[in-house]
Amino acid sequence: MSGPAKTRVAILISGRGSNMVSLIEAARAPDFPAEIVLVLSNRPEAAGLARAAEAGIATQAIDHRAYPDRDGFDAALDAELRAAKVDLVCLAGFMRIFTPGFVEGWAGRMLNIHPSLLPLFKGTHTHARALEAGVRLHGCTVHYVVPELDAGPIVAQAAVPVRAGDDPDSLADRVIVQEHRLYPAALALVAGGKVRLEGDRVIFDAEAAQADGALLSL
């Protein structure tokens, strides 16, 4: 007998897709509740597309430069995702800001990983800004996507200490290790129905609440 149907996931990338690789590898486990059915990039030259193809996953490039505006690109992206019968979208270094209409169309079904402990350091250059601010803890966050940049309800976070002598590169190197652990764990919680959105809050079931405590202490 076959098990329950797995959540169909598309990963959106713009570059090498290191977090994409961590999700693909995690999804190979028989008991992982999601399957990666599509990797899509806004840049045809993105190195991650070849890595996904090597893993046997369908890939698609939609060059944003071919569209006169964000609405046109987002409409093409939406059509590809729906044609692939995608249930959940994971952003993994996808360097595009969506139109509010696209985000609303995938509300509660789109995740992102951000290299800071949100709500601190939204946007770019997070590691340099963390060092400039003098924080002692830095890290990464998996959150639902909402129209406001890097502001959606938080699913999970992992922290790393900021060490004396750190520069943005050394700090980034430690954070990315945690990103590669956190994102698959968070996707498993969402795809497995262990967390749900109620309004703008993430609600955990009892099992997931225990797992989230472990995520926070990675």
Automatic annotation (TrEMBL):
HAMAP family: PurN. Its EC number is 2.1.2.2. Belongs to the GART family. GO terms for cellular component: cytosol. InterPro entries: Formyl_transf_N, Formyl_transf_N_sf, GART. (6R)-10-formyltetrahydrofolate binds at residues 70, 112. It is an enzyme of class 2 (transferase). It comes from the Bacteria. Catalyzes the transfer of a formyl group from 10-formyltetrahydrofolate to 5-phospho-ribosyl-glycinamide (GAR), producing 5-phospho-ribosyl-N-formylglycinamide (FGAR) and tetrahydrofolate. The keyword Transferase applies. GO terms for biological process: 'de novo' IMP biosynthetic process. N(1)-(5-phospho-beta-D-ribosyl)glycinamide binds at residues 17-19. The record marks 150 as: Raises pKa of active site His. Residues 8-187 form the Formyl transferase N-terminal domain. Keywords: Purine biosynthesis, Transferase. GO terms for molecular function: phosphoribosylglycinamide formyltransferase activity. This is Phosphoribosylglycinamide formyltransferase. It holds the Pfam family Formyl_trans_N. The active site is at 114 (proton donor). Pathway: Purine metabolism; IMP biosynthesis via de novo pathway; N(2)-formyl-N(1)-(5-phospho-D-ribosyl)glycinamide from N(1)-(5-phospho-D-ribosyl)glycinamide (10-formyl THF route): step 1/1. The lineage of its organism: Bacteria, Pseudomonadati, Pseudomonadota, Alphaproteobacteria, Hyphomicrobiales. It catalyses: N(1)-(5-phospho-beta-D-ribosyl)glycinamide + (6R)-10-formyltetrahydrofolate = N(2)-formyl-N(1)-(5-phospho-beta-D-ribosyl)glycinamide + (6S)-5,6,7,8-tetrahydrofolate + H(+).
